Every structure is written in structure tokens, then in C-alpha cells.
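Note to self: keep these together.
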Amino acid sequence: MTQFLLRHFVREYENTQDPAVRERYGILSGMVGIGLNLCLALGKFLAGLASGAVSVTADAFNNLSDAASSVVTLVGFRLAGQKADEDHPYGHGRMEYLAGLAVSVAILLVGVELAKGAFEKILHPETVRFSWLSVGILCASIAVKLWMYRFNLDLSRRISSAAMAATAADSLSDCAATAAVLLGLLVSRFAQVSIDGWVGILVAAFVLRAGWESAKDTIDPLLGKAPDPALVEGIRQTVLAYPEIGGIHDLMVHDYGPGHIMASLHAEVSIDADMAQTHDVIDNVERELADKYHIAATIHMDPIVTSDRHIAALREEMLDLARQIAPGMSIHDFRMTEGPSHTNLIFDVVVPRNCTLSDEEVRQTFSRLAQEKNPRYFTVVQVDHCYTE
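Structure:
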């Protein structure tokens, strides 16, 4: 069914990196969510009126809030698909994250209201009228919500959408909540025990948990979470596949929303190479990264000495010291100036995120270890910090 909908309603649906295609995915998800949730809300509301069960009515309002959330998702994707303008030169891609956050807040608010209504029902219980029609409506709702979970999960994986993942998680929690409501009706019918209010509390707990999990998933990219390790490794391998580039460092990835990712890095090239030819290589790397990962990359050339064996040996010595100080620590931009009384070793060190040493402690440790190897060594260290794994 998902494939059928994509083929008929999303033009060029396989080109998921295109912002326009992502927008069409969002519109499809929103329209499906609005239509199905409105139908479920109406059916459950009528069933709640017929049975007098607060848990069924609460589940109806939960579906109504889902329909409103689908509207927010649809609007969010429309806004995210807008082109860059004077005030937003990096585009509007983060509107998708904001839409996901708005959905999460709406889910949390509904959960709070459901909990309040269920608590009142516990304090002032009322008789629940059983009907097989209500049971049928709830069973149909579970089946529909399971399909919506698979549908939105599939879409979210195709386009890596936090907003659709939040919608999928909400659909799954709705399945559990409706199953609890159904269980409550059956217990009241066959065991003659009213647990309507307690089931309402359970429904509210499912809703609140889904809202909290969804909020975390959408807040992380807004705060600037670490880039996907697979993307980082892919960038690294792509750049280092060019024989003219000996190493990379200072890689940073900036996420301005799906389809709006920028990256910058330093590429080490031989100081003896023709700079015009090397610049052409860098241009080719940037184009390949754009084609392969749909990111706008800016690469800075770092000329390094590769033909001097003495400098190469000293660089390896300092790299060994870096690894002694902290696993994953590395160095770059290594230079050397020799004098009659001492040798200055000048380089940058990249400190991994899990290193607990301060910048000054890193410098002092390098100085001590270098002079233990040779009293003539004086280190001049610039400390950088790693932004990727």
C-alpha cells in the first residue's frame, strides 16, 4: 500500500534527497494522517457516548489531536520546502524539526488532559455500558493505527525524517492505548469490574511517553547533535581516495535541516605539488561530496612537507605521544625550526571529546613527554577539539 501511494502521489519518489520530493512525502503523510485520524476520532467519540466510557472518549480526543498534529506536520514540510531567501540564506529545512517538536508538545498536552479526566473518573466512577459495536470500532482502530505506524516509519526511513518518526511512534503508542481501552471494556463486561478510570490513566501514560520520546528526537538536531558516524566516515573515505590528499582534519558538519547540510574540513597536500593542479583536485572532491551525499562542502588546503624524512620521523614521534596522552588524539600541521640550542616542534593537536584534560594540561603533557625523549625538543601546541567521532 505504501509503495502504491508513493507511486501515485509522490512524483520522483525515489529521489529522496531532493527537498521538493521530501515536501511531497510530508504532504502525503499529513493528508493520510488527517483523513484516517478524523475517521477514528468520530467513530470512537460515538462509541464513547454510547458506552459512557471515559477511556473510549479520551482515546477519541487522542485521535483528534493526532489529526491536528498531521496538520502541523503538513505545514512544517511545506515551510521546510521553501527556497533560501535574504533572511534565511541556508534555507528553511529546520522547520521540519520544529514541526516535529510542535507535534511532540501537542502529544504531551493531550496526555496531561487525558490523565486529568481519568483521575476524575477514578474519584467518581460511573457505570460503563458495554456494546459490541464499541469493541468493533476499537479493533478497527488498532488495525488502522498499526498500518499508520508502518506507513510513517517507512516514510521516515526513506527520507530520514524526525517529524515522521515522531508520528510513527505516536501511532504505535495509540495502538497500545486503544488495546488497553478495549481490555477495560471486556473486563467490565465479563468480570463485572469497572476499571475505566485506571485504563484512562494507562492511556495517558502511553501518550505522555510517546510525546517525551518524540520531543527528544526533534530537539537533538535543533541543539546541534553530533553528525551521523556513517556520514563522517563516508566523507573521510571519499576525500582520502584521492592520492593527492594525505590526510584530513578539522571536519565539521552543520545540519540546517534535511537536504540542507554543510561541511568544512582541512585536507593535507604536499607542499611541493603544483598548487593550481591541487586546487583542481579539491574542486573535484567538493563536487563528488555534493553528488554522493548532497552536502555543500568547503575544503581548506593544508600544504605539508612530505619529502623530508627527518621531519616525517619527528611527526610520527609526536603522533605516538598524542596517542599515549589519549586514545584517538591526533596531530596535524606539523612544522619544525632547528636552532643551535633547541628544536621547536610546532603542530596542532586534535583532542577527542572523551578526553578530560584541559587545553593547558594537554600542552604541558606534550612538553614534558617531548623533553623526556630529547631535552632539545620544545613543543608549540595549538589545541583543537574534535566535532565528529
